[in-house]
Amino acid sequence: MIRTAALAHVRNRRLLQARSIGKDVFYMAGGKIDAGETPVAALHREVREELGVGVATYTELGVFHAEAYGHAPGTRLHMTCFTAELDGDPHPSGEIAELRYFTVREYAAMDHVAPGSMLVFRKLHELGLVDW
């Protein structure tokens, strides 16, 4: 099982997704929770590393379980996801090549989608926060 913390940052009813250098799939911004680290601490660290900004305020959106995309079949993802306000405009930093905001339909139309991201898109759509 891979434990991660992820950011669900919505702007103009679209959800932010990040693409790592050398990859073609967009994922939730965030990453693995280090040993002894809390999901909140991982959120703060990963957002700073990947988006070059800090987390000003956050709220836990939920814990999502899915197949871990890009890993051996059967590897499960345990993703603690947070909505958050950031202290600046996110920009690609560290290992991130590109950031994009998607509606549910735009993301689902991609050639490859991360199952964990799709769960978050659906949840945010149910809450009326992102467009279909």
Q: How is the largest sheet built, in terms of strand order?
A: 5-1-7-6
Order of helices and strands: EEEEEHEEEHH
Radius of gyration: 13 Å
Helix residue percentage: 10-25%
What's the mean pLDDT score? 92
CATH fold-level name: Nucleoside Triphosphate Pyrophosphohydrolase
Q: N- to C-terminal separation?
A: 30 Å
Number of strands: 8
Number of domains: 1
Q: What structural category characterises the helix and strand content?
A: alpha+beta
Shape: globular
Strand content: 35-45%
CATH H-level homologous superfamily name: Nucleoside Triphosphate Pyrophosphohydrolase
Largest β-sheet summary: 4 strands, mixed
Give the class-level CATH name.
Answer: Alpha Beta
Q: Helical region count?
A: 3
Cofactor: Mg(2+)
Protein name: NUDIX domain-containing protein
Organism: Nocardia bhagyanarayanae
InterPro entries: NUDIX_hydrolase-like_dom_sf, NUDIX_hydrolase_CS, NUDIX_hydrolase_dom
Could you characterize the architecture of this molecule?
The termini are far apart. The chain is an alpha+beta fold and 132 residues long. Strand 3 and strand 4 form a beta hairpin. It has one domain: Alpha-Beta Complex (Nucleoside Triphosphate Pyrophosphohydrolase), CATH 3.90.79. The protein contains three helices and eight strands; from the N terminus they run βββββαβββαα. The mean pLDDT is 92. Strands 5-1-7-6 form a four-stranded mixed beta sheet, sandwiched between helices. Strands 2, 3, 4 and 8 form a four-stranded antiparallel beta sheet that branches. The longest helix is centred in the middle third of the chain and has 13 residues. Helices cover 23% and strands 40% of the residues.
